[in-house]
Amino acid sequence: MTPPAPAPSAAGVRRLVLDTDVAMGAPGSDIDDGFAIALAVADPALRLELVTTVDGNTDVDSATALAVELLHRLGHGEVPVVRGAAGPLADPWRPRERAADVLERFGHRRPVPGRAAEALVRHITASPGEITLVAIGPLTNVATAMLLEPRIARDVREIVVMGGYFTGHQGNVRVPGEFNIWADPEAARIVLRSGARLRFVGLDVTYQVRMSRDQAARLASHGGDFGRFAGECGLAWIETLRHRYPGSATRDSFHLHDPLAVAAVTHPELIGWRRAHVAVATDGVARGITVADLLGTRDAPEPNCEIADTVDVPAFLDLFLRRVGAL
């Protein structure tokens, strides 16, 4: 049974931990994790206290170096970054090509010693009911933390996941599920069965939220120091997508998947939610696909999460561009 929603904190500020496979800053790599980190530090109603990294969009060493670099660029170098899992639970030793030149360019700043799963356990259990965890990469670190200390499922305030695809499908036999779930479906299954309060922001809604070339160009020319950097990264990512998907009708824009999950913490009104029981396939041709029972039958299973089903796109884009443009 999904626990009830927690009451707002007295101070009105949500304590946040972000688990990410950030690749922003590596040439030709996805950038929305970096935008999510920026939104997390730009929102005055959030206090980012810890960042953990995981293999996903890039290898975990590159993600760690990039997370440290981005936080320094944002003026929040005091936020600890802890390196996490180098691969998925069921196949941790699969080869992963390191992002070109990342460690040579950004590896001079060191993360905090330790392991991400242990850091998650310590941080969450030290303040029961106070920590919100936003997971915007594969769920390997989160599942490992739950295996180390199952009570974090009770102690965490809530877990917001950018992951899943609940009313559609990828149309890609090589990656049939949404990437974060597909990359480690065993970890996703552990999280879904944990009993933690879960909200999933899936591709159903994130595919609706895009930054256009014109918006990225305005950031690049009129934003603050980070805003200009973010706009330039956005324009470069659009060019990468144009070459990667030459037939796409939306090639002059890119999705803002991960920032929407961060916005869901302090602005849940931007998103429509519905209770569901979600399971994930872990083998066969459907590996990584999420299946949502929307509880419409008399003998429906107990809900284990809430899933996003609508989004106010103009309101979110206005919020995002104002916050990140001011950095």
UniProtKB/TrEMBL annotation:
InterPro entries associated with the record: Inosine/uridine_hydrolase_dom (IPR001910), IUNH (IPR023186), Ribo_hydro-like (IPR036452)
Biological processes, Gene Ontology terms: purine nucleoside catabolic process
Annotated Gene Ontology cellular component terms: cytosol
One example GO MF annotation: purine nucleosidase activity
Origin: domain of life: Bacteria
Residue stretches making up the Inosine/uridine-preferring nucleoside hydrolase domain: 17-318
The name this protein goes by in its record: Nucleoside hydrolase
Protein source organism: Streptomyces radicis
